[in-house]
Amino acid sequence: MRKVFLLPLVLLMSTTVGFAQSAVTAVWVENRENPLGVVSAQPRFSWRLQSDKRNTVQTAYEINLKEGSATAWSTGKVNSNQSVHVVYNGKPLESGKKYTWQVRAWDNSGKPSAWSKPAFFTMGLLNEADWKASWITPGFTEDENRPSPLFRKEFETKRKLRSAIAYVTSHGMYEAFINGKRIGDAYLTPGWTSYHNRLQYQVYDLTNQLASGRNTIGVQLGSGWYRGNIGFSGQYNVYGKDIALLFQLEIEYSDGTKELVISDGSWKTSTGEIQYAEIYHGETIDHRKEKAGWLNPGYNDSEWSSAQVAGFPKNTLISTINEPVRKQETFKPVKIFTTPAGEKVIDFGQNLVGWVVMRFNGKAGDSIFITHAEVLDKQGNFYIDNLRSAKCRNIFVLRGGQQEVFEPHFTWQGFRYARIEGIKGELLPENFEAVALYSDMEPTGTFTSSNPLINQLQHNIQWGQRGNFLDVPTDCPQRDERLGWTGDAQAFSRTASFNMNVNSFFAKWLRDVEADQVEGKVPFVVPNVLGKNEVNSAGWADVATIAPWNMYLAYGDKRLLETQYNSMKEFVESMRKIAKNDLWNTGFHFGDWLFYRPGDDNDGRAAVTDKYLIAQCFYAHSTELLVNAAKVLGKTEDAASYSDLLKRIRTAFVNEYLTPSGRLVSSTQTAYVLALQFDMFPEQLREQAAKRLADNIESYDYHLTTGFLGTPYLCHVLTRYGYSDIAYRLLLQDSYPSWLYPVKMGATTIWERWDGIRPDSTFQTPGMNSFNHYAYGAIGDWMYRSMVGLDTEEDGPGYRHIRVKPHIGEGFTHASASLKTYYGTVSGGWKKENDELQMTVEIPANTTAKIYIPAANAESVTESGKALSAIAGIKINGGEKGYVVIETGSGKYNFIVKK
Ligand code: BGC
């Protein structure tokens, strides 16, 4: 079970026992620890050098890489400070092979670290021809409920094993077993991609799970995204109607001989206990229908039908590069009660995404229905109208006899409450447990402050991310939607990169963005299940440029940028083609989705922003990010020509949407926020525009009125133009519309709408009212990056060159945050005490930092009790409006500023 750690400031300030000598304490290949199934011909190696000596940098490294006992790559000592994303440059890596490697690094004391602990990776299947297995489908006619098909195969191992590696994928979802034991701990496999173009397979090391002698492989499938109901228009079979399995086990004996066990016509198929499984609607499991013993050798499958071999393509198969969905936190019931309507309901205390595990002892044939909901209504009744057509109901049918355990396999639910039907008498807490499932990304960020409501907001942001990062970044996890909405994903991508390491998560999904682009145009949702015309809504489509750039900043991942470059460029080109005289003012756009509009709007207070004004802003922004990417990648011609285009886009904006005195045609917060954020105003008109924004906020009595597109940038723009005080007022506002209003209403996740539950406890329209939608959680980025002030400089992305610049405001006595980067932990925090300001900063080895200390002059600042000027390694770099700016290297710093 994983816990969310909120680091108190004291902890940040204490020094930990550490590494007098530099040590390599973590290593990655392609951003993962010991990955199986790497397919890059030139994988990248990263390591973390740790030291508690200040100003430690790496001066050289050495990598040794072996296949068995043969060296495949030995770099010798390389004089370089690079420790992240070092590109492989050894002998060609071979399909299916396992490689072990170690690294050591020299620091500026001239001494090498010890060699890192041996790490490994395996290569995936590099060529289509490496797949010897055949696609197989059930050998019987499925009934209309489409019960989960079972596939089984017995085989024998003949000698002592050296290794056994399985490669598995399916049309639909699969769960595989070897001799009765589940293979791996990944769920909802093979995950979701643009299946027509890309289908992931997973790799499992079964070396320690095979028995000598007889073995049985068992696999069950569910319809999943492939052919289940997906999309809100009731679509089924989006990718095809056939459910199918592809399974290849490569066995190597210790005498060097090899054997393959592959899916083919010799496999047997039947159905079992899973009678029905749909992502939106839930799963029906009837224990009486279990084929007892089918997972073990010796089971009599003579009544089963032989699998059918199918000719489905294999040229779309890709290895999995992101972390799989795994089981995470578990929750016990916090309350069991009967609602006024007489229903028995369990409260798990947290709106989460996953499912309920039930342990129960009852009579054969008894059915227990578990329905899921996020909220109770005003009267305290179970509320499911906002799930729309999704049934979100699991049905468990008992075998009878001893205690039975039930949990679904091919569905999930977004819920805090579960309604239990079919149990007479009292519900016992020990019979029910909720388990959260999400992509197993490393938690990297913590944020905490002196304000408990803001800490709850951070909690809600993180749970919004957990609930909606299930292999694909989804809008929501509960109703008949759960789609990869591109606008939501771009809005939240930077915040996401603080809370967890989302490098590989986005690297994978962005490949699907490109795969589903239609002549460069980016779909509303990816994978696209809505149709080829549902594309290029401003602020949604821009995920194609925004997310790659954010990943480049957060992780320094230049290859991701390179891989996405074409997608970025094609998207910008698609807008250029649509635009007339550099104005993008046609087509459908969602606009500033879910902006503030009062019910009775006689006074014209609804914050409607012209959709084409928004489109022009994002057109400029995406073009600018393309220019940035072109510069990083050395594409000078593109950089120059798109810089020209960018100028023209801005001029067109000025001509169309701005009055000579600097007023925008839409006088909304979002209009000013976007135009300021993306530098659409001529320089001389920016300050007055920022003032208009500030005045507008004041006129709403310090409430925001922004929707999905304005919200992520609102506080950043205020801070940039010197209105941090207003940003703080917005953050601390707790009446509708505001970030804290839902918190005060008891939210444990971020809501889709500012008023999902209205002040009078009634609900917003059930047609669009999710209580787990991360988009508005984008404020997290400002909390980390401006409030505490942890940021990366663009010239040293991935926090190689760090900027710590807190903006301290009213209403808090302290705030602190930490971020685990590839280099190590970056942290910062401030605390106001009496007449002093304490500021702590931690900078990892092999990075440098520019630290902005809020002080009038260097003389008023001490570090660990000494004058700043007396500290070796700290370079005082003058000042900047209210800050003393210093440059320094790694280490932990405790600054005190006297007023
Ligand atoms: C989704 C949003 C999405 C929007 C498009 C909704 O149904 O839940 O989050 O971005 O449609 O405006």
Automatic annotation (TrEMBL):
InterPro entries hit by this protein: 6-hairpin_glycosidase_sf (IPR008928), 6hp_glycosidase-like_sf (IPR012341), Alpha_rhamnosid (IPR016007), Bac_rhamnosid6H (IPR035396), Bac_rhamnosid_C (IPR035398), Bac_rhamnosid_N (IPR013737), FN3_sf (IPR036116), Ig-like_fold (IPR013783)
Keyword terms: Hydrolase, Signal
Signal sequence region: 1-22
Record field: catalytic activity: Hydrolysis of terminal non-reducing alpha-L-rhamnose residues in alpha-L-rhamnosides
Annotated ranges, domain Alpha-L-rhamnosidase concanavalin-like: 339-437
The keyword DNA repair belongs to this UniProt entry's keyword annotation: no
Alphabetized GO MF terms: alpha-L-rhamnosidase activity
The Bacterial alpha-L-rhamnosidase N-terminal domain, residue ranges: 160-328
Single GO biological process annotation from the record: carbohydrate metabolic process
SUPFAM superfamilies: Fibronectin type III, Six-hairpin glycosidases
Domain of life: Bacteria
The keyword Transferase appears for this protein: no
EC number per UniProt: 3.2.1.40
Domain Alpha-L-rhamnosidase six-hairpin glycosidase: residue ranges: 444-786
UniProt enzyme class: hydrolase
Ranges for domain Alpha-L-rhamnosidase C-terminal: 794-866
PANTHER family per the UniProt record, alphabetical: ALPHA-RHAMNOSIDASE (EUROFUNG) (PTHR33307), ALPHA-RHAMNOSIDASE (EUROFUNG)-RELATED (PTHR33307:SF6)
Protein name in UniProt: alpha-L-rhamnosidase
Species of origin: Flavihumibacter solisilvae
Lineage per the UniProt record: Bacteria, Pseudomonadati, Bacteroidota, Chitinophagia, Chitinophagales
